[in-house]
Amino acid sequence: MAAGTATGTWPSEYPTTAQLSSNMTNPRHPPSSDEPSLDELGGRISKARYEAGLEKTAAELEALEKGAGADLGAAWRISIEIVVALVVCTAIGWALDYWFGTKPWLMLLFLFLGGAAGINNAVRTALRMDARAMEALEAQKQKPKS
Amino acid sequence: MSAERHIDHSSPMHQFVIGRLNDWQLGGLDVSFSKAAAFMFGAVIVATLFLVLTTSKRSMVPGRWQSVAELWYEFIADMIKETIGSEGRKYFPFVFSLFSFIVMCNLLGMLPYSYTVTSHIAVTIGLALSVFVLTTFIGITKHGMHFLSFFVPKGVPFVMLLLVVPIEVLSYFMRPISHSVRLFANMTAGHTMLKVFGAFVVQMGVFGVLPFALIVALTGLEVAIAVLQAYVFTILTCLYLNDAIHLEH
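Above: the input entities. Below: the structure tokens describing the complete assembly.
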């Protein structure tokens, strides 16, 4: 995944350091010695990273995802969506009732709409996280054993 | 003014009081320079100084400090590339500044005697609303009236649209709120918890060793959460930008 995206469409006038090193090298074919020294250096860095298993999109992110706070973070991300939508929508309904004097109908309507909106957002977040996890898994599978 | 008087000094919520550093009035408005403002300036200054100083040498083979700065840059660049693609390049400065600001505010808040700016909903909703306004603006300028199709999912029968469209619109407007509450609630909850256990250490005498050990562990967790929540805030910003640019869920 990492090696694939690094060589992607990021324009060269604004290079990432990842692109700098990946442009110079292919880990399996380290450049020969008659090439400029920078390329050689890049090759060595890339090779070392590859062998150490560091050649990932964001090594830091990877570490974070395995860390103690990560599961908590995922839980927060999803649960907050539901709670916020439900509470805020109900409050909106209550306020509208207060203005129009239609107690309690708009509050009830917005309670259900808020629940739906919250679940809509939560499901979407969960699907995104799933897609991300699947991508990571695919990348793991495709990575050849060195 | 009122909050400062009513919250007891030993209360775990006392740490969140916005203290004034001076007393400025401008046309009846309170424009005093507060502790919160000072720490926001501090976060900007620390982040800027760190990045400028560590990259000043621009050596080809980065040293330890330069590696940290490069990692920081790459982390955001990769995030944008993965979530938005090459169109996201334009928004790199915005996303990078946002991440740096939040992560610095969170981490400065972990220092003893300091103050956590992001534990205030006013700050986080300010950030979330600027993201919300920006993404909506981008969506409308890029797609014109076609932007409204974002609220109409494909392949839904017309009768159902009467129900689905309001839900989609509500979902969209809930975004800045959940975006900001997530960061604010995490920071507030974590810091309150630390203070509560800190009080236990004092109250329990010799047995205070137990909550003290817990605080050590919790502090580690809080540092992780400080970085993680900054990351979550930033990646959601990227996802919202992606929605606005590509008009897809």
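Note for the figure: The two ends of chain B are 45 Å apart (CA to CA).
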